[in-house]
Design brief:
Number of helices: 15
Helix content: 40-55%
Strand order of the largest sheet: 2-3-1-4-5-6
Largest sheet: 6 strands, mixed
Strand content: 5-15%
Order of helices and strands: EHEHHHHEHEHHHHEHHHHHE
Distance between the termini: 35 Å
Radius of gyration: 20 Å
Structural class: alpha/beta
Number of strands: 6
Length: 307
């Protein structure tokens, strides 16, 4: 009997997926994969995220220096933090990659198991169809962040090795080019992601959660996610460090010119997301209009079957 993949968090990047991965790891009845991002379904070269899984053959992959550097980093980290992961890592790195191999990664994971790969938000219909064919019963979680803040955070992450003094010059030269790259656009096109997955997965298996809730109402948010994937939500209070700040990046204010550019770019999507889902999407709209309201009916998560 195949091991069921109970959940997959498909993104979005820079929207709190690391926080969610760490909190789920703290739960006694939930076991995410030892590596956060498996990149199995986005491993084809047509997708904008790099993945050494694109080469299925172990024999061909062993000659890739970048692959071996990645392996060594993961092994050294496991030896230092959790040697019990080494057997799983060996299966992950030193196998021929195919559907049976992917499912085998979950066989010995206890309790409710799943994976978190933000790049899955970039999958096209063919990619989601392959996922559904292999794991049709899995629960899909999509973490969302105000698209303006997500795009800016993505840019900041891409330039994380530069000094603060260099940012202004770099902004003038390439921020707009970066915002219009395929990698950035796909990761911030929430409507495309939702609609693509709903062509295959029923609404009952799809939940939206919000980055904003990690700061404002993390306990309720995590309880609702745990309940959605089939766990005991009462364990969140006793087992999880919901106040952890491992989702916070160094702050750098968006320059006014860049902010105006992003507002104009994402205004239509924010309005459509508000019309569809309300909650924090409504707050995004009011922030866009500089018309905040204290009466916003905020929900930390939305089950699409309730929409």
């Amino acid at each position: 009997m195949r091991k069921k993949v109970d959940f997959i968090c498909i993104g979005a990047q820079k929207a709190g997926t690391t926080w969610l991965y760490n909190r789920l790891n703290e739960l006694s009845e939930v076991t995410p994969t030892p590596i956060k991002e498996l990149h199995y379904f986005d491993r084809e070269l047509k997708y904008p995220s790099y993945s050494f899984l694109a080469e299925s053959s172990l024999f061909k992959r062993v000659f890739n220096l970048r692959f071996f550097r990645h392996v060594l980093v993961k092994y050294f980290k496991a030896i230092k933090e959790n040697p019990s992961k080494i057997a799983w890592l060996t299966r992950y790195f030193f196998s021929n990659y195919n559907d049976e191999w992917y499912l085998s990664l979950f066989k010995k994971l206890k309790g409710i198991s799943g994976e978190i790969t933000p790049a899955y938000s970039t999958l096209d219909e063919e990619g989601v169809a392959k996922m559904y064919q292999l794991i049709p019963d899995t629960k899909i979680i999509l973490l969302l962040r105000n698209p303006i803040d997500r795009a800016w955070s993505h840019y900041r992450f891409s330039t994380r090795n530069i000094s603060k003094k260099e940012v202004d010059e770099i902004l003038k030269s390439n921020i707009y080019n970066f915002i219009d790259t395929e990698a950035q656009l796909l990761r911030t096109d929430y409507i495309r992601t939702i609609d693509t997955f709903l062509k295959f997965y029923p609404k009952e298996q799809f939940m939206i959660a919000f980055y904003d809730s990690i700061k404002e109402n993390p306990t309720q948010m995590l309880e609702e996610i745990v309940s959605f994937i089939g766990g005991d939500s009462s364990k969140v209070v006793t087992e999880c460090d919901v106040k952890s700040m491992d989702y916070v990046s160094p702050f750098l204010r968006i320059p006014e010119e860049t902010l105006l550019f992003l507002k104009e770019k994402y205004n239509p999507m924010i309005n459509e997301m508000n019309d569809r889902y309300g909650s924090y999407c409504q707050l995004w709209k009011w922030q866009l209009e500089n018309n905040p309201s204290k009466d916003t009916p905020i929900k930390p998560t939305i089950r699409l079957s309730d929409v």
